[in-house]
Write a structure and sequence with these properties.
The complex is a heterodimer of chains A (180) and B (197). Chain A is built from 9 helices and no strands. With 180 residues, chain A is mainly alpha-helical. Chain B has 2 domains: 32 residues, no CATH class; 132 residues, Immunoglobulins (Immunoglobulin-like), CATH 2.60.40.10. In chain B, helix 1 runs parallel beside helix 2. Chain B is 19% helix and 27% strand. The chains are: A mainly alpha (180), B alpha+beta (197).
Chain lengths: 180, 197
């Protein structure tokens, strides 16, 4: 019989009590779950790696401010989200073309050149959205969350998310038509 | 509606609320275009195997989070690791707290009232308040007043004899325990200062 995985709250409390090595359990548990979110938000696997790594270090520094250790993952997500938004603000002037190609390049072996091209075009179009618009698209259509789940995670309302998403749909359509 | 905007029904299709078959015939082509857009969504997992080691290497040389809480109030990261909290140094933008009893009452009878002055040195703070068992942890109920340019914030309260738990709240978001007072774990990974009157 497999042992029950230890709850996040138990690990957080152990780290705060001085057992910092236990933090590795949290890193391994969540690093890949949010890597894809960060990669699609930032348009680059390398930038995603930096962002996720920084977010884990920042979460460690601020761990005593995690008011509900059993909800560590939701708290961590917000730290990563802030990091991704800050990264986009910093690099807003940079072209996203190279970044989008970096993401798409990894996919070429999976679905052929045509799939890779469609993905590349969509990723480029995603990078033309505002971070708010891109985030709701990524959480719904990449991560597969419902509007209700996204609203809970971002502490906002479903109608507001839908409005953001519907603007994103229009903008994506415009971008894809311009570049295809 | 501009030429790039999807019809509201097509947006419902994209949201997964309706199927392509539910669209009127004149919107089917637009619906198919929308579905092609979704078909290009890349859901390939991204793996970051290497970061576990990098994160653990980085945190190995950092102070434990519990001890570093209050130092984050205003101090730049590279500075706060090299200084000690009890060395008050406004020039280094460090916050420290101490508590002064205007009328210490070591033998206070239960139910008696005691006046206590709370002091926090936080030169870069914009607002400071006190939250504790005496105000139901309301972070806005008991603001401290800044006195002078040195960043000394004070509040004077009259509290009932007994034990109180509290923390300073800096700029509405940072909960800072009092390094001059004993502290207990609040059960959520944070430290509350304890004042016994």
């Amino acid at each position: 019989m497999r042992p029950e995985p230890e709850a996040d709250g138990e690990i957080v409390r152990a780290v705060l009590a001085g057992d910092r090595e236990r933090y590795a359990q949290l890193v391994e548990r969540y690093r890949d779950r949010y890597a894809r979110y960060a990669a699609r938000m930032l348009g680059s696997a390398d930038a995603a790696e930096d962002a996720v790594q920084d977010a884990f270090v920042r979460a460690f520094d601020q761990l005593s401010q995690c008011k509900e250790p059993d909800k560590f993952v939701g708290w961590f997500f917000l730290i990563l989200r802030n990091r991704c938004f800050a990264e986009r603000r910093r690099s807003r002037t940079e072209t996203s073309l190279e970044a989008a190609e970096t993401v798409a390049a990894a996919d070429r072996t999976e679905g052929g050149a045509e799939t890779a091209e469609r993905r590349r075009a969509l990723q480029l179009a995603l990078m033309a959205l505002t971070p708010d618009q891109r985030e709701v698209f990524v959480l719904k259509h990449v991560e597969g969350l419902s509007y209700g789940e996204i609203a809970e995670r971002l502490s906002t309302s479903v109608p507001s998310l839908k409005m953001r998403m519907h603007r994103a749909y229009d903008k994506l359509r415009e971008q894809l038509r311009e570049h295809t | 509606m501009s030429e790039h905007e999807f019809h509201p029904l097509v947006k419902q299709l994209l949201d997964g609320d309706i199927t392509l078959a539910a669209l009127p015939p004149e919107l089917r082509a637009e619906g198919q275009e929308a579905l092609r857009l979704l078909a290009a969504v890349d859901r390939t997992p991204v793996q970051l195997l290497a970061i576990s080691q990098h994160v653990m290497q980085k945190i190995a040389v950092r102070p434990l989070p519990e001890r570093s809480v209050w130092r984050r109030v205003v101090a730049p990261r590279e500075v706060r690791l090299r200084i000690r909290p009890w060395l008050l140094a406004p020039a280094l933008a460090i916050a420290a707290a101490l508590i002064l009893f205007l009328r210490p009452a070591p033998t206070a009878a239960p139910g008696s009232l005691i006046t206590v002055r709370f002091v926090l040195v936080a030169p870069d703070a914009h607002e400071v308040s006190l939250a504790g068992t005496f105000n139901r942890w309301d972070a806005h109920a008991t603001p401290l007043v800044r006195s002078g340019p040195t960043g000394v914030w004070t509040a004077t309260l009259t509290l009932a004899a007994g034990q109180h738990q509290y923390a300073f709240v800096v700029d509405g978001v940072r909960w800072v325990p009092d390094p001059g007072a004993p502290a207990v774990d609040d059960g959520f990974g944070r430290r509350n200062s304890v004042l016994t009157l």
